[in-house]
Specification:
Radius of gyration: 20 Å
CATH topology of one domain: Alpha-Beta Plaits
Mean pLDDT: 79
Strand content: 15-25%
Low-confidence stretches: 1-8
Distance between the termini: 41 Å
Order of helices and strands: EHEHEHEE
CATH architecture of one domain: 2-Layer Sandwich
Largest sheet: 3 strands, antiparallel
Shape: elongated
Bound molecules: zinc ion
Helix content: 25-40%
Number of strands: 5
Strand order of the largest sheet: 1-3-2
């Protein structure tokens, strides 16, 4: 990940590094809902004062057998988050793709 060595850890793989304190816990809930057991390592409590802050958010670890599954799930989730939901034009009621900036039917811009 960021150049830190976890070579002392066997059989588990780091699949996620949070970008904020809440991230890892939210993702853990999603993975556990998928039936994948997750271990959270809170680097904040483990290494405060010794590690650069960017390296100090919690990380998620899963067993090596489930790592591919967990990574595929996280990849799907990340892709889903980029999809903008469709919107309905208030003027003519047409449903537009989320990526459309104007209504395809009457060219009115959503507010
Ligand atoms: Zn319209």
């Amino acid at each position: 990940m960021l150049g830190r060595s976890f070579s002392g850890v066997r059989g588990v793989v780091c699949v996620f590094r949070g970008t904020g304190p809440a991230d890892a816990w939210l993702v853990r809930d999603r993975l556990e809902a998928e039936g994948i057991p997750v271990q959270v390592r809170d680097d904040l409590s483990a290494g405060r004062g010794e590690l650069p802050i960017l390296d100090s958010w919690p990380t998620l670890w899963v067993s090596a057998e489930r790592a591919a599954e967990a990574e595929a799930f996280l990849h799907r989730e990340a892709t889903l988050r980029l999809v903008v939901p469709p919107w309905t034009c208030t003027a003519c009621g047409e449903v537009n793709e989320g990526s459309f900036e104007w209504c395809w039917s009457c060219q009115i811009e959503p507010q």
